[in-house]
Every structure is written in structure tokens, then in C-alpha cells.
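Hey team,

Sharing the Stomatin-like protein 2, mitochondrial run so nobody has to redo it. Sequence (300 residues) first:
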Amino acid sequence: MLRTLCRAGGALLQGLNFLIPLLDRIRYVQSLKEIVIDVPEQSAVSLDNVTLQIDGVLYLRILDPFKASYGVEDPEYAVTQLAQTTMRSELGKLTLDKVFRERESLNSNIVHSINQASDEWGIRCLRYEIKDIHVPPRVKESMQMQVEAERKKRATVLESEGTREAAINVAEGRKQAQILASEGEKAEQINQAAGEAQAIWAKAEAKAKAIRLLSEALTEQNGNAAASLSVAEQYVSAFSNLAKESNTILLPSNTGDISGMVTQAMTIYSTLAKTSPAVAKTEALEEKSEELQNQSESTQ
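Structure output:
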């Protein structure tokens, strides 16, 4: 707490001070503590022509009691009016949406503007806080509708994105399923073809071995007797199968003479075995004669 003198225009500091009666008199008493001033509610127009009702709280401190006493008549009233005019000026630079989003920057701009003007008064504005912002009922309803529309828009967008993602996932799953199915079918066909090839190869190998063993057996002693026995067995088996499979049977005239039919079959086999080398030799001689005839014609 500092006191200023009326006569000398000085300030009484803390501690013991002497005053001359009738000459010295305490004129102003200034507190050096931080002062809180309630800024009354006022109307302001934003950049988009919306009328707002705004009130705030101002925090200030007196740095120079002499300037605060003799520089302005009522420092608190002057700072309050300066805060109101500065607030209206700053709100006129912002739209309604930015007023709600940029309250912190708005407060700092008001404090900066107040300090530029109150420096001559010995007063320092520490901070300014906006308490309430009141908008007209119609504007408030439109803002509520805008918020609801924005929320519906977001919900619709999220739902559509979810539907799109679900469709993409389903299509991707079907694609992968078709690819895997085709690959499985391809592998199955390859395995089946390989199995069939191996089976054919095994049958061919077995048949070749059987023919080789049969030819070796026929060249051995008593081979013709073994062949006769095999033909007789196949003859009897063939007639028994014909009797089981069909009602109509074509029988030779000498069905009872099995030995004669076996002898006839073996005779045909022997004849074919003997005529095969002769036929081969005859074909070789014919090819040789044709070559000689062609050479003679070419020399002529």
C-alpha cells in the first residue's frame, strides 16, 4: 500500500514517514496487489454479422502509483472501458466459429492491446478471461442443426466406408477362394495325370515282362506242351464265360474235341512263328532289288 502526498506530489514509501500538519495531506491510496475487475456484459458483432453478448474478467496490477494517481482520474474504470472497446474490436475481426475455437488467442490479443494503452497510467494488465458468450436463440438453433448435420454426415460417411470395406473384403475372399480352388483343381489334375501315366507305364512294364517270360518259356524244353495247356485252359474258361454272360452262344461243330482245337491253335502258332522270319527275309530282298534297279536307272 502506497500513499501519495497532495503538496509535494510525491509518494510515501513503506515504513516511518513524517508529515507536516496543514501542509501535507494524503490524497490517493493505491494498492500494489493484483486487482480483479469484473467486465460487464456487452454486445459485439462478429465478422459474419452475428451479435454476441460477452462478459469477462480482467486481472491487473499497479506498477507505478504516481502515474496511476495523477495519470488518469479513475484507473479501474479506464481499464474496464478499454477492455470493452478492445474486446469489441477484436471480435469484429473473427467469425462466429473462430470466436469459440480461438478464445485463447483472443484473450492474449486483448491483453496486448490494453497494455499498449495503459502503460502511461502505470498499470499492467496480466491476463483477460472471457467468462460467457451468449448467442441469439435463432443462431443457437442453427448452430445446433449444423452440429447435428455434421454428425449425421460423419455417421453416413463411416457407414459407407464400412460397407465398402466389407464389400472389398468379401470380394477379396471370393477371389482368393477361386484362386485356391483353381490351384487345387490344377494340382489334382496334375496328380491324376501323373498317376495314370505311372499306371500305364507299370502296365506296359508288366506286359513286357510277361511277354519276355513267355518267350523265354516257349524256347525252353517242353515249352510247346505248356503253351498247349494254357490254350486249353483259356478255351474252357472262354466257353464258361459265354454261358454266364449271354443266352445266345455260337459253338463250333467240334466243341467236344478240345485236343483237336488245341492242336489246331498250336499249328497256327507254329506256322506264324516259322513264316515270320521268311517274310522278313523276302521283304529285305525286295527292298535290295529296288535299290539296285534305282541305281542302274540313275547310271543310264
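The chain is about 65% helix and 15% strand.

Ping me if you want the raw files.
A.
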